[in-house]
Structures are given as C-alpha cells and as structure tokens.
Amino acid sequence: MSENEKISWIFLSIAMASQKAPADYNGISMIADGINHAVPTHKELQSSITWLINKGFVVSSNKKYQLSDTGKLIYTRASENENSLMSIWKNVEKSLEKD
Hints:
The protein has a single domain (3-97), classed as Arc Repressor Mutant, subunit A, CATH 1.10.10. By secondary structure, it is mainly alpha-helical. It is globular, with a radius of gyration of 12 Å. It is 65% helix and 8% strand. The longest helix is centred in the first third of the chain and has 15 residues, at 3-17. A two-stranded antiparallel sheet has the order 1-2. It has helices at 3-17, 25-36, 42-54, 69-79, 85-97; strands spanning 58-61, 64-67. A hairpin with a 2-residue loop joins strand 1 and strand 2.
C-alpha cells in the first residue's frame, strides 16, 4: 500500500469514526479494519494522523480526532454521487494527492 493510500485510508476511518464525537485510536482502528480488512499499525496511525493534522485536515483534542472543516469538505466532495466505500476512498486519495 502506498503512503497516500494509507493516509487516505486513515482519513476515511477518522471521518467515519468521528461522525458523532471525536474518535480515539481504537475507534479509528476498528473502522479502518472494516474498510480494508486490516488493522493499521500504531506507526501507520501515528504517521498518517500527524500528516493529516499538519495539513489541516484533522484536529485533535485529548488524544481524540475528528475532521477539520477543510477535512469535512474533502469527505463531502469525495462522497458525492458515490455508493461504494472503495469509490469514496479512491476519491479521498485523489484529493489528498493534490496537497
């Protein structure tokens, strides 16, 4: 899996895990496993989340994470007219490649 695929996987996991409230690593990992049938390593989570925070796509508070307003916009656009989680993931990946 490429670095961009990993980051977009974690981004999508955060988007889904934090729909009602900010999510911790465990909540993000559970969603990531459901998306990709694989549990991300601590290093994958940490490096992806750090990248996403540095780019302004995710915000953190008390070791819990959620999309920023910019991240929500990316997720909304990636989800438009899509019925498949894999299609949304690919759209997120394309959006994050630009940055």
